[in-house]
Structures are given as C-alpha cells and as structure tokens.
Amino acid sequence: MLMDRPTGAEADAARGSLERHPVAEFLLSAWHAPHGAVDGSWVRMPPWRDGLGAVLAVTGRAAVVAPSDVTDAELSALGVDGWGQAHDPRVMSRLAGSRGWVDVLDAVLVVEGTGRPDPAVVPKPGLRHHPRVSHALALRDEVEVHGYEGDDETVLTLARGVGGLAELSFELAPARRGQGGGSALAAAARGLVPEGEPLVACVSPGNVASFRALLRAGFTPIGSVQLYRPSP
Description:
This protein is of the alpha+beta class. The protein has 2 domains: 8-105, no CATH class; 108-221, 3-Layer(aba) Sandwich (Aminopeptidase), CATH 3.40.630. 27% of the residues lie in helices and 27% in strands. The chain has 7 helices and 11 strands. Strands 1, 2, 3, 4, 5, 6, 7, 8, 9, 10 and 11 form an 11-stranded mixed beta sheet that branches. A hairpin with a 2-residue loop joins strand 2 (53-58) and strand 3 (61-65). Helix 6 crosses helix 7 (208-216). This is N-acetyltransferase.
C-alpha cells in the first residue's frame, strides 16, 4: 500500500537535517502544502548545477534560475509571473540566448521513497551508452543505471536532478509496454530511495503512457519545469 504524503512536522522529520537547494524547497513546499500561498509572484533562484538554468512553476507561483546578465526588471517586462507567463517562449528565448538550448516543458511529479528495493531490478552499468542514460548524464549528477537481467532495452536511471533532488527516468523495451511495466519500474525506483525521502519525475504532458504509469506508482503532480542552457 502506498504511504500518505507527509505534512507539517512529519514533513520536517522526513527531510531530516538536510539543507536543500532553494529550488528543491520551492517544489517540496508545493508538495507538502498544495493549497498554500497563491499570489502570482515569482522569485529568482541560484543554479543547482553549473551551466544549467530553469523556469519552474507551481500553483500561483514561479521560480527562475537566470543568467546574471538577465535582470529582474527585464524578466518582469517580459511578463514573468506566477500565473503561467514564466513559461512564455519569449522568456525562454531570452534566457537561453540565440545559441542556447531549451528543453521541452515537463510536468513535475513527486512521491516518497520506500527504501525497499525490488530484487528484480539490478545495476546495469553496461547500459551507460543508452540514449536515456546519455540524456540523464547531460543534465543530472550521480547518475545510477538499473534494469532487468537479460534485458538491454529497459532502463531506469536514478540521479540527483532538478534542485538536487533524487530524480528518475525510465524507458521500457517494446515487449514490456502496455502491460503495466512502466508503473512497476517507477515503483522499483521508489525502492531505491530512502523511506520518506522525495523522488521526482519530470515528464512531458503529452507522454500520456508514462504520465499514467507514474500516477499508478503513487506520484503526485506538483508543477512544471523547463530546463535550458544559455548561450556560451
């Protein structure tokens, strides 16, 4: 049975004494208190990874990880707010610059780790060159690769991702699709994270199969994120 999401003192206990990045706190506050302050505000935050920026939004609030040459006044003039305008393509274009890279807009989902590994899911260092792993290595830190014995097409990555939080990504072999394999793999990822600690998944809203798999595994949608790398 899936555990209830912690709130109040329980949430503080679950986080322990770890000092989280402001972006992580921004996301987790929306998870712990989904009906908190909604005022349309936005806030500037420092990067959690060198060379990587982001725009994040939760209900009624936004956060922008911006280069130093982009001023708050300029962002406000572009219409950045907590009502959705932070993800305006003009904002992303200004942040990334003419030669920068902008990722797709993803929904952010969070769940608690269970600390109970699935014995069927094993380390798969031989899959380090899988496209899913290559993508994780380019954007995240401390990337671990897992999968199933005898299956070199199904892959699960666990890393330090958005805001320094544990983040998963996965891809199923074609033969495993349509059979609940995505939910099983996402649930297995929960087992690789200590009990009570947050686990993030970022998925395109159009990727309905993966979105549904994450929901079935107990993940809760809390906001959105769009990563970018500014022009060199």
